[in-house]
Structures are given as structure tokens and as C-alpha cells.
């Protein structure tokens, strides 16, 4: 014999009820002798409670009641005349008295299950099967704790076995779940998941071979799939782990459901009604699952933390006993307790609805202590949540904990007491709870790891980067186990948001997404609302405003990758503020492309400096654009300087206004960025630099500048003619550290360099950096390679993103 239990969604009109009947009949035809337990159909219980509330407020309820009855008998010739009269009488009484006692509410909501059992029994009879509706109140006997009654198991067992022994052979019993009767014969209900508990008791009393719980989901998951879409179905689960999950809010289970089954070793299989007949085995709960180590997450919101603080509590016996005596008197249940080693304070987690009552009881118990100052504070911190990790002990919690901290989730309390393989975390609010679930689930179960990118700027560099990420995404998932999701793309006028990541049509979608608000606040709020973990801001603009908002992003959980130099050349006070904010919030900031495009310059410079290597000079070609222009000039002396600059612009190596590059100002910025990496608190004004563009041309319109370009050519030609035969012209940045004076000399300008030197031998748009150190002496470390171009810079930004992503694995 097996017990089949069906939930409300399975029993609703349409596909659900039709499939339920097929399942029952199949089980009967296969000789399983099914005993069926049913919940109220669809949202019948909610509808009944809504009717109670309308009646309690004295509002008309006839129309809603008519809708309720129309739903109950649909498809059959059932009239439920007796039930209609009784339900109308109860509601009328509530309307007249304007109140509804727990006893009366139990009597009223029980009709959902009663009607459901009668409906299913009649539907089976209409198909030619013998079926009988059974009120579980005829055998389940409880106390009179209305709303959540406790079952007297032995007397209930005797009555159950006697009742079922009288059923005619071949009859299919359709039993109500959730409802029972007190010893005095008054209607009671069994509380949350009461129908599952009814079914488990029935399986225990009748010695079933298995209990099959049919729901609207495929089984029990590693986390609530509504909150964590990536949650995985668990094939097999032990009674103990199932009980732990039920304690922490797993909707399918309840601790009372597990106990009767475990007592007699009856397996429980959780199945999906709506995938019946397909290759879905659901989840099997048994004493001996094949996989002994099963990890899962559950959560409970609506928690409060009671703070109890005092002086001179160390060594004073009886404090804890008095605290819990107060809770007992107030009927408050405790879920977590923490106490400092000095006993100056105790923190206790309770349901939020019990918090005020608990605080009042404690104030009453410790009235004299409060008056004498021995107890100093008693208050409740509400709006909290508990996250439970089943199957994990504290030794294995290092990676999930680091991930929580990285995502700005700092548990208020952590418990690893009983049982030893369950960890409980108290966190702030539902939003943080959902994010904690996603972060921990990602650490325990998910490969690849999700990284959420917000990309600001989609011009030449940003557009190339987005294309590279989309193109490489699947390969990164397979080979690096990293799932890069671009959840936001923004410019000054549009903002495209997609929590699961944009696709190849992002450009068209962005055009349909105008935006005028505060970008930082919007992205931060969006990330919080969708509980996005591992967030990275990627800035491919040259905006001062966006750079100035980096501290705000960092303090709200974003790491930062930037090709924008503005934050690194800001006044030193702002520069230092950003660094302190990053450190305080444990955020990373990567900007390798600020100098040298995609070259590994800044990382290597940081490594040398941190290792204690004294860097005496950094000398080189800091601008790939200027490198290209002056390389061409030395390699093709017959060409005009103008033709070379125009060619550079066509290749996208210079800005639309080439004066931005030719002025050398970008080199000045890069000099400042590098010297600051050596912990020198320099400012832009500390760099002595030469602007090759004549002053008379600097403020002209772009058109007028091109018309008078010849004036610049004359100056460049003069400088070229002054070179020796073994020299070439280069725009060079230079940092020289004076160890005696403890100061840096910073310069940038056109220089004559030997054609055989590393700077003289470069070609194309290569940048070249010579790093001189005390250990290496006169032989510099040379870093050379492509130093300009949108694709090269995008690759560098991509590399920074991947370095951050790989760091999330550690």
C-alpha cells in the first residue's frame, strides 16, 4: 500500500485535477492499493480566509462566496448543499459579531479539504472506480490548540486502523489533509504543511511502503529555485537533512512530516504532478541515500534579534535561566543564541512577531536589575533573516565566507552547534538574505561562477569590449568556469538593464532604453534589488563625473575596472580617498590600460615596488599614438608630417582632434599615474612638459587648426633637421627618482634618442618602457608592445576583468 498526497496546485481545475485522477487510477491499476490525501484545491484556503476577513469587517461577502462555490464543483454535478448552508451560517455569524475566534476559523477553513476530498472521490466514481471521501477528523485526535493542534498519535492510530479495516475491498480512500478534531470533537487544524503531516501519519499508522508527495515542482532543490534560479534538484536526501531543511522554511517539507516516516523507515518521494509520466524521479527521502553528503540551502525571513546587555554579569549565576523563563512565560520560541565570553551580553533570535512580547517579558523579569543598572539595554532589532547551510561544517566555510564578505554581506551571528553539519547565519533583511543564498550557492554548487558587469561607455573601446565578451562567453564558461554577464550598458543618454546578461542585439535594445536619472544610484539599486553578486563596474569613458563616483560604487559592492584615467590623475586628496575607500570596503580597482593599453606594465611595476625593489627611473614612449606618428616620421622622411597625422586619425590611433595627442598631455597624465604607483604624492602640476603644438594653434577651431597645420609642420621639421644621423625624434616621458633628496623629477617632451636604443627601435604604434632599478643597475627591464588602438585597449580591459574574476575563485 502506498500513500499519495496531492497539493492544492495539483488539484486545481484543468490539467492539474485531470492528471491527479490519472495518477490515482494508474496506481490502483498497478495494484498499489493507494490511499490518497488531498489539500484544499487551488487557492481555496486563501479564498476562505478572505471571506472570513470580509465578514469580520462587516462587508458583503455573497459575491465572493458565489465565486468560491463556482470553483468547487466545476466539471461535476456536485452541489454541496449541506456545506453551502453551513458555510453561509458561519460567515453570517462572524459578520454579526465582527469577530472570529481561532476555533471558529478552524471550523471554517476546514471546508477546503472537505470539499476537495468529496470532489476527487466523486470524480473517480464518475470514471467507474469505487472511492470514498474520508474526513481525517474521524480518526485524527488532537489537543485544542486551534490553528496548530498537536496530534495524540496512539489514540489516532487505533481509530485510523479501525476505520480503514472497515472499508470495502477495492475502495480508494480520499482523505482530507490538514484537519482533525479535538478530544471534545471540535474541529482543529494542524498548521503549516498540515496536509503533508496528515499523509505522513497515515503512512505510519497503515504501514505504507512509500509516501509519494505530488507538488508543482520536480523535487527538493539545493535552494529555493524562486530565489536562486540556478538551484539544482537533489536526487536523494536523508531524513536528517530533510528535517534540517524543513526547520528552515523548505516549503515542500515540514519537520512533523519527516518524523512519522523516519520512525517506521517509510521512504518519501517528492514528485511533480505536471511532469507525470516523464522521466522525472523527483527527490527520494530515505534512511540511506546513495550520496551521504548532500548540501542544500534554506532560509527564514521575519526574524528579530533580542539584545540583552548588562554590567557585572560574569560569574552571576541564573541570568540565562531568568532570560529563558521570561521567554517561556511569554510563549516565545528561540532559534539561535550567542553570548560573549565576558557574559556582558546575550543575543537571542526569535520570530519578528514575538519580538515585542519577548522584550516586554524581559523588562518585567529584570525590572529591578534595570533600576540598579546591572542590566543596561534590552531591545529588539527587527527585519532580519536566517540562512541555513545544510551539509556543511565550519571547517568548510572559508570560501563561502570570503565570498560573502567580498559581496558586502557580514553575518550578524553565526551558529554551528547542533547538528554539527548545519551552519546558520543571521543577516540583515530579505534583500541581503536572497543575495547571501545566491553567493553561497555559487560557491558550493555552481561552476561556472557568475560575474555581473556594468559597462559604461560603448564607443570604440567599450563596443569592442562588449563584442569580445559576448564572443568569448561560452568558451570562458567551458574552459575557465567563469560566466560573464553584462547586466548593464550605459552612456550619457541610454541605459540597458538585463539581470541575466545582454545578448548580441544589445545595440538595438540600448537605443530603445532612454535614461536621464542618476546612473550610479540606479545601478547600485538595481544590483541590490536583483541580489547580483560579484559586480564589476567597467568604465570605458573619459568622464570626470563617472570617475568621481568610484568611491560610491566601491562602498556599495562594486569592484572597478577602468580605461578612464581621470580617477588616477585627480587631485591627490581625491586619489587617496578612493584608495582608502577601496581598502575599507575590500574592493579591487584595476586600470592596467591607463598606461600602455594592453601591456602588463602597471601590474609589474606594483609587484616590483611592493617587493621592495627601489625603482630609480621609468623612461619611455608612453603614447602609442605619438609612437606611431614619430616612427613613421623617422622611417619615411619623404612623407609630410600632416599626411602621417591624418593617417593616424584614419586608423583610430588619435582622437578626432589630433591636438589632444600631439600636445603630449596624455603622456603627462601617464607619467603622473606611474609615479603615484611608487607612492609619490605628485600632482599634474609637478610634471614639466613640452607641448609641440604652437601656442597660436591651441585654441583654434578644429577646421582652423587644419588650415594652419603647416605652422606645426615647420616646428617638427626644424626639430628633425637638428638630429644627428644616428638619432630619431620621439615623444618621451621620464620619471627619475632622487634617493638623496627623496623626490621625483617628472618630464615629458620631444627628445632625440639613439636609433639603436629600445626607444629608437620601436615600430608601429608600440609603446616602450624602460624600468631602471637598484638591483638591475644599468640594464633596464624593457616592456614593449602595442600601445594604442581600440581593440588592444579593449583586450587589456578584458584582461583586467578576467583577473578579477579568477580572484573570486580563491
In short:
The chain has 810 residues and is α/β, with parallel strands linked by helices. Helix content is 41%, strand content 22%. The strands form five sheets. Strands 3-5-2-1-8-10-11-9 form an eight-stranded mixed β-sheet, with helices on both faces.
Structural domains: how many: 4
Radius of gyration: 37 Å
Question: What structural category do the secondary elements indicate?
Answer: alpha/beta
Q: CATH homologous superfamily name of the largest domain?
A: Acetylglutamate kinase-like
Summarize the biggest pleated sheet: 8 strands, mixed
The CATH architecture of the largest domain can be given as: 3-Layer(aba) Sandwich
Task: Report the sheet-strand fraction.
Answer: 15-25%
How are the SSEs placed, and which strands pair?
Blueprint: E1 2-6, H1 15-29, E2 35-38, H2 44-56, H3 62-72, H4 81-97, H5 102-109, H6 111-126, E3 131-134, E4 141-142, H7 153-165, E5 172-176, E6 179-182, E7 187-189, H8 194-206, E8 210-215, E9 236-238, H9 239-247, H10 255-264, E10 268-272, E11 283-286, E12 296-310, H11 319-329, E13 334-339, E14 345-351, H12 355-365, H13 367-372, E15 375-390, H14 398-406, E16 413-415, E17 422-428, H15 429-444, E18 449-456, H16 460-479, E19 482-490, E20 495-497, H17 506-511, H18 519-529, E21 535-539, H19 544-548, H20 550-555, E22 558-562, H21 572-584, E23 589-590, H22 602-610, E24 615-621, H23 624-635, H24 641-650, H25 659-662, H26 665-677, E25 687-689, H27 695-698, H28 702-707, H29 710-721, E26 727-738, E27 743-754, H30 758-761, E28 766-773, E29 781-786, H31 790-807
Parallel strand pairs: 1-2, 1-8, 2-5, 3-5, 4-6, 8-10, 9-11, 18-19, 18-21, 21-22, 22-23, 25-27
Antiparallel strand pairs: 6-7, 10-11, 12-14, 12-15, 13-14, 15-17, 16-17, 19-20, 24-26, 24-28, 26-27, 28-29
Helix pairs in contact: 2-3, 2-4, 7-8, 8-10, 9-10, 11-12, 14-15, 16-31, 23-24
Amino acid at each position: 500500500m502506498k500513500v499519495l498526497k496531492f497539493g492544492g496546485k495539483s488539484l486545481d481545475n484543468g490539467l492539474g485535477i485531470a492528471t491527479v485522477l490519472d495518477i490515482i487510477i494508474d496506481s490502483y491499476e498497478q495494484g498499489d492499493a493507494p490511499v490518497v490525501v488531498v489539500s484544499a484545491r487551488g487557492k481555496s484556503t486563501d479564498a476562505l480566509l478572505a471571506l472570513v476577513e470580509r465578514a469580520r469587517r462587516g462587508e458583503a461577502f455573497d459575491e465572493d462566496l458565489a465565486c468560491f462555490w463556482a470553483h468547487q464543483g466545476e466539471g461535476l454535478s456536485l452541489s454541496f448543499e449541506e456545506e453551502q448552508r453551513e458555510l453561509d451560517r458561519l460567515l453570517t455569524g462572524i459578520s454579526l459579531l465582527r469577530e472570529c475566534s481561532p476555533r471558529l476559523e478552524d471550523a471554517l477553513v476546514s471546508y477546503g479539504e472537505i470539499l476537495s476530498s468529496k470532489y476527487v472521490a466523486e470524480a473517480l466514481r464518475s470514471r467507474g472506480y469505487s472511492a470514498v471521501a474520508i474526513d481525517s477528523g474521524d480518526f485524527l485526535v488532537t489537543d485544542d490548540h486551534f490553528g496548530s493542534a498537536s496530534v495524540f498519535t496512539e489514540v489516532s492510530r487505533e481509530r485510523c486502523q479501525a476505520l480503514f479495516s472497515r472499508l470495502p475491498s477495492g475502495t480508494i480512500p480520499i482523505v482530507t489533509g490538514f484537519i482533525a478534531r479535538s478530544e471534545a470533537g471540535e474541529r482543529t487544524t494542524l498548521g503549516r504543511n498540515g496536509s503533508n503531516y496528515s499523509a505522513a501519519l497515515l503512512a505510519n499508522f497503515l504501514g505504507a511502503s512509500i509516501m509519494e508527495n505530488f507538488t508543482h515542482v520536480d523535487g527538493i532543490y539545493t535552494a529555493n529555485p524562486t530565489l536562486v534560479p540556478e538551484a539544482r534538484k537533489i536526487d536523494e536526501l536523508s531524513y536528517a537533512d530533510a528535517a534540517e531543511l524543513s526547520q528552515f522554511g523548505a516549503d515542500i517539507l515540514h519537520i512533523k512530516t519527516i518524523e512519522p516516516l523516519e520512525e517506521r523507515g517509510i521512504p518519501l518521494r517528492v514528485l511533480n504532478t505536471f511532469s507525470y509520466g516523464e522521466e522525472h524521479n523527483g527527490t527520494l527521502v530515505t534512511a540511506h541515500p546513495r550520496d551521504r553528503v548532500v548540501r542544500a540551502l534554506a532560509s527564514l525571513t521575519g526574524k528579530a534579534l533580542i539584545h540583552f546587555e548588562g554590567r557585572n554579569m560574569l560569574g552571576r549565576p541564573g541570568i540565562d535561566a531568568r532570560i529563558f523563563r521570561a521567554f517561556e512565560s511569554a510563549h516565545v520560541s528561540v532559534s539561535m543564541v550567542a553570548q560573549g565570553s565576558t557574559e556582558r551580553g546575550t543575543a537571542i533570535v526569535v520570530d519578528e512577531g514575538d519580538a515585542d512580547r519577548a522584550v516586554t517579558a524581559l523588562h518585567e523579569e529584570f525590572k529591578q536589575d534595570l533600576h540598579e543598572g546591572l542590566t543596561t539595554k534590552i531591545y529588539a532589532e527587527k527585519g532580519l533573516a536566517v540562512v541555513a547551510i545544510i551539509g556543511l561544517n565550519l571547517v568548510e566555510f572559508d570560501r563561502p565566507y570570503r565570498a560573502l564578505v567580498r559581496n558586502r554581506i557580514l553575518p550578524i551571528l553565526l551558529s554551528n552547534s547542533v547538528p554539527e553539519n548545519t551552519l546558520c547565519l543571521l543577516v540583515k533583511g530579505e534583500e541581503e538574505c536572497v543575495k547571501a543564498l545566491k553567493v553561497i550557492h555559487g560557491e558550493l554548487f555552481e561552476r561556472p561562477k557568475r560575474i555581473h558587469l556594468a559597462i559604461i561607455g560603448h564607443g570604440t573601446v567599450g563596443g569592442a569590449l562588449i563584442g569580445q565578451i559576448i564572443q568569448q562567453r561560452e568558451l570562458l564558461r567551458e574552459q575557465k568556469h567563469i560566466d560573464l554577464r553584462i547586466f548593464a550598458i550605459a552612456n550619457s543618454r541610454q541605459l540597458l538593464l538585463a539581470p541575466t546578461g545582454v545578448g548580441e542585439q544589445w545595440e538595438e535594445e540600448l537605443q530603445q532604453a532612454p535614461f536621464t536619472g542618476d546612473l550610479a544610484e540606479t545601478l547600485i539599486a538595481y544590483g541590490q534589488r536583483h541580489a547580483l553578486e560579484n559586480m564589476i563596474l567597467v568604465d570605458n569613458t573619459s568622464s570626470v563625473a563617472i570617475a568621481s563616483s568610484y568611491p560610491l560604487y566601491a562602498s556599495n559592492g562594486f569592484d572597478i575596472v577602468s580605461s578612464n584615467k581621470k580617477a588616477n590623475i585627480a587631485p591627490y586628496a581625491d586619489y587617496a580617498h578612493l584608495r582608502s575607500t577601496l581598502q575599507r570596503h575590500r574592493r579591487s580597482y584595476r586600470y592596467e590600460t591607463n598606461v600602455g593599453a594592453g601591456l602588463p606594465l602597471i601590474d609589474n611595476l606594483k609587484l616590483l615596488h611592493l617587493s621592495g625593489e627601489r625603482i630609480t627611473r621609468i623612461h619611455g614612449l608612453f603614447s602609442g599614438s605619438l609612437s606611431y606618428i614619430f616612427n613613421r616620421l623617422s622611417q619615411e622622411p619623404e612623407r609630410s608630417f600632416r599626411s602621417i597625422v591624418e593617417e593616424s586619425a584614419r586608423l583610430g590611433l588619435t582622437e578626432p582632434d589630433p591636438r589632444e595627442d600631439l600636445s603630449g598631455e596624455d603622456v603627462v597624465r601617464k607619467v603622473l599615474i606611474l609615479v603615484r604607483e611608487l607612492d609619490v604624492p605628485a600632482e599634474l602640476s609637478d610634471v614639466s612638459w613640452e607641448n609641440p603644438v604652437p601656442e597660436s594653434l591651441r585654441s583654434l577651431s578644429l577646421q582652423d587648426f587644419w588650415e594652419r597645420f603647416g605652422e606645426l609642420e615647420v616646428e617638427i621639421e626644424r626639430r628633425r633637421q637638428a638630429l644627428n644621423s644616428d638619432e630619431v625624434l620621439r615623444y618621451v616621458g621620464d620619471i627619475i627618482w632622487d634617493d638623496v633628496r627623496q623626490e621625483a623629477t617628472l618630464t615629458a617632451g620631444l627628445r632625440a634618442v639613439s636609433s639603436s636604443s629600445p626607444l629608437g627601435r620601436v615600430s608601429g604604434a608600440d609603446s616602450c618602457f624602460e624600468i631602471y632599478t637598484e638591483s638591475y643597475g644599468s640594464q633596464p627591464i624593457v616592456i614593449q608592445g602595442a600601445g594604442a588602438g581600440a581593440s588592444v585597449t579593449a583586450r587589456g580591459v578584458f584582461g583586467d576583468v578576467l583577473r578579477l574574476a579568477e580572484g573570486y575563485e580563491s
